[in-house]
């Protein structure tokens, strides 16, 4: 025995097929619907009547061709039947849109989400509302968005126009003028980046939108290289920092960190081997060490770098600096103690 949702899905699939025939000018009739779906003639008539009356489609019958046609512009096909998995995806899309709200990327997606949501029946709306009550997306340390800047840069990428701006590197006080060919916008770790060909440096560089100032689009246009592929460019990185090296990285993790990170995929080259006692060893091949260095530092004493030597040395420098900085942390200086006001 089929449930109501299955019947509803079959109905929508049938009407969507009829819609396709009409849009293609094939003049379908009830006989074709009956033969295609093995339903009764009254079911085919009911489907077409529903499309005419409830979906307000300009469907008319041609006596000479013995079939139906659109007597006016073909409208968009209306409501679709959604499974619970579809509704879950719809809910997640709505939550994820929060970080794009108000931008040129977000506005059409918001309109699409709103249009689909309006077409849900009461049962689907109830299910969607329940999902929204039990699920949320919480970005960590999300960057405050500069909507005008984002729109300017995205327009430059889409129109392939030269972009100039003032750019300040981390830790530097002065900004430098840059003129670039903007190729690709990328979001990683709640921050927007631009992959662009720097005209002065004659190389593709990665820019953080949050560090751009006085950005202006010029009337100069450019051709993006056909072989440019952001996935290939960043293939050796953990995020957005592409390097020119080739490092075999080997890290051993204790049982606690292994459990915390179990199932997470850091890089396509990643290989994980279980160790006695519940720990693990992770291997991956990277083009740079900056990003993995930050991860290892965040794992503290739960991780130990085996290879490469260069990464061990870099971590050693940081570890000694931290040890010197916090050498008096356990001396009980009352002036430096954090006191709980409660």
Describe this structure in words.
By secondary structure, the protein is α+β, with helices and mostly antiparallel strands. The protein has 4 domains: 67 residues, Winged helix-like DNA-binding domain superfamily/Winged helix DNA-binding domain (Arc Repressor Mutant, subunit A), CATH 1.10.10; 51 residues; 87 residues, SH3 type barrels; 79 residues. Helix content is 38%, strand content 22%. The chain has 11 helices and 11 strands. The strands form 3 sheets. A 5-stranded antiparallel beta sheet has the order 6-5-4-3-7, with helices on one face. The chain has a 4-stranded antiparallel beta sheet with strand order 9-10-8-11. Strands 1-2 form a two-stranded antiparallel sheet. Helix 4 packs across helix 6. The longest helix is centred in the first third of the chain and has 20 residues. The chain is elongated. It starts with a helix and ends in a 17-residue tail after the last helix.
């Amino acid at each position: 025995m089929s449930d109501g949702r299955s019947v509803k899905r079959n109905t929508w699939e049938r009407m969507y097929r009829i819609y396709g025939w009409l849009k293609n000018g094939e003049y379908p009739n009830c006989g074709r619907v009956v033969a295609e779906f093995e339903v009764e003639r009254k079911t085919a008539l009911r489907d077409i009547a529903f499309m005419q009356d409830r979906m307000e489609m300009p469907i008319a019958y041609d006596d000479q061709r013995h079939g139906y046609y659109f007597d006016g512009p073909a409208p968009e096909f209306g409501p679709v039947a959604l499974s619970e998995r579809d509704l879950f995806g719809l809910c997640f899309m709505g939550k994820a849109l929060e970080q794009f709200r108000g931008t040129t990327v977000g506005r059409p997606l918001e309109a699409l989400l709103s249009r689909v949501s309006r077409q849900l029946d009461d049962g689907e709306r109830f299910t969607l509302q329940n999902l929204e009550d039990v699920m949320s997306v919480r970005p960590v340390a999300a960057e405050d968005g500069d909507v005008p800047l984002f729109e300017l840069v995205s327009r430059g990428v889409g129109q392939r126009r030269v972009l100039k701006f003032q750019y300040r590197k981390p830790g530097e006080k002065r900004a430098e003028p840059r003129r670039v060919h903007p190729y690709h916008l990328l979001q990683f770790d709640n921050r927007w980046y631009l992959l662009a060909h720097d005209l002065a440096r004659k190389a593709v560089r990665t820019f953080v939108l949050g560090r751009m100032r006085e950005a202006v689009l010029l009337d100069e246009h450019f051709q993006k290289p056909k072989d440019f592929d952001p996935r290939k460019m960043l293939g050796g990185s953990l995020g957005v920092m592409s390097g020119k090296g080739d490092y075999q990285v080997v890290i051993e993790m204790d049982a606690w960190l292994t459990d915390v990170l179990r199932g997470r995929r850091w890089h396509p080259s990643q290989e994980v081997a279980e160790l006695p006692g519940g720990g693990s060893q992770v291997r991956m091949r990277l083009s740079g060490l900056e990003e993995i260095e930050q991860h290892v530092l965040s794992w503290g004493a739960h991780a130990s770098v085996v290879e490469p030597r260069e990464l061990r040395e870099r971590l050693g420098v940081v570890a000694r600096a931290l040890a010197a900085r916090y050498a008096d942390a356990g001396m009980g200086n009352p002036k430096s103690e954090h006191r709980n006001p409660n």
